[in-house]
Amino acid sequence: MMMHIGEEPISFDAKALGDYWPGIQLYYPPVKYAPSLGIYEDMEQASARMKKHAHYTHAHTLIFDLEDGCRQKAMSRDLLRQELPMLRKMNERVTIAIRANSFRTDEYELDMQLVRDMGDYIDVVMLAKAGEAYGAAEVRDLSSFLLSVNPHITIQPIIEHPKSLKIAPDLMQYTTVKHVVFGIHDFSKAMGIQITPENWIDELQFYMNTLMFEARIAGKGVIGGVETLIGASAMPEKYLEPHDVRRWLDLHGDNESRVVYKHACKESAMGLTGKQVIHPGHIHLCKTAYTPSPTEVAQKVSILKAAIEADALLGGAIKFEGEMLDPPMFGKALQTLLRAHALRALKSSDMEFALHVLQLLPAQVVRENWPYGVLL
Asked: Per residue in 46-64, pLDDT tens?
């Protein structure tokens, strides 16, 4: 497809919108502790669990944590060497992320050897405590290393200290960085802030807004905080519309699920591009909060079609369902469609329409509405 700005044609297709977003990221322990037995799994048990669960996960991303959440680091690396090829074969859609240890530590070097050995099966390296010891040079050197291993591997720096937040623009200057993670628990510890599981978004709002501000300027995404609350109920995947989710929460949910959903809705409204969870029961609940529902997508398509029909897409206003709408609202409607696409939830017909709308817009307007593109 072609988009014309004045006399200058610009090629444009879905690839220009950038990669798919991290979405809902599930922490998956490679080697797990069994509280009932008081021991860790052996390789055979960990392998069986991965085949039973990881191969069929509905999370957008699986995070294999080799840092704080990993006690059996050497065995975990051996397991990943053994299992990642089969995981990739069985679940081609899932993004595979490795949470590496702090830069230039002994464990980091061992993590990088794993990345070198398994580079064809890894999509993301998450850098713990990014920039705290050596500043942005950490991301620069890791970027150089990854380019020699697999140029498609990206980096997600984890902002876990005020030092990292202060240099966030420097950490995000590299093309290998598409999204950054707000590590709320280490960050709040470093700040001396006693956050609570129910209200951490409000308690860290200023710092999250600061990170979002810098990321938006840089055209990067932000991945939200990991929840520690674990409820007893998991919402069935047939619930997609907000009113159905609220009804399920009212009738079958517990307080933990309600809090997690509320937080995910707030993060989605702020424009975050992903969220980390520690329990599989959170995956679909957070997916529904982050992903525009089918009804919402249909409404935004209707808004944009009405704007095009009235020749108001770039200037003018329309009346739609009792509300006056103008170009900023049209831009938000387009963002909704592109968000659904970035989270792998937009039908092909709606994607074709979104590309048609983009074709009608000046390049600068496209950039304003969608800063994540790779060709704009």
From this structure: 999 999 999 999 999 999 9
**Per-residue DSSP letter, 129:** T
Give Cβ neighbours of residue 106 (< 8 Å, ≥ 6 apart): none
For the chain, strand residue ranges (E) read: 2-5, 8-11, 23-27, 33-34, 39-40, 61-65, 95-100, 124-127, 154-159, 179-182, 221-224, 274-277, 318-320, 323-325
What residue has token string 């792998």? 344
Could you give the angle at the alpha carbon of 126 between the alpha carbons of 121 and 128, nearest 5°?
145
Whether pTM > 0.90 for this model: the answer is: yes
State the CB neighbour count (10 A cutoff) for residue 229.
17
Phi, psi for 107 (deg, rounded to 5): -65, -35
Q: Tens digit of pLDDT for each residue in 24-49?
A: 999 999 998 877 677 899 999 999 99
Backbone φ and ψ of 179, nearest 5°: -145, 150
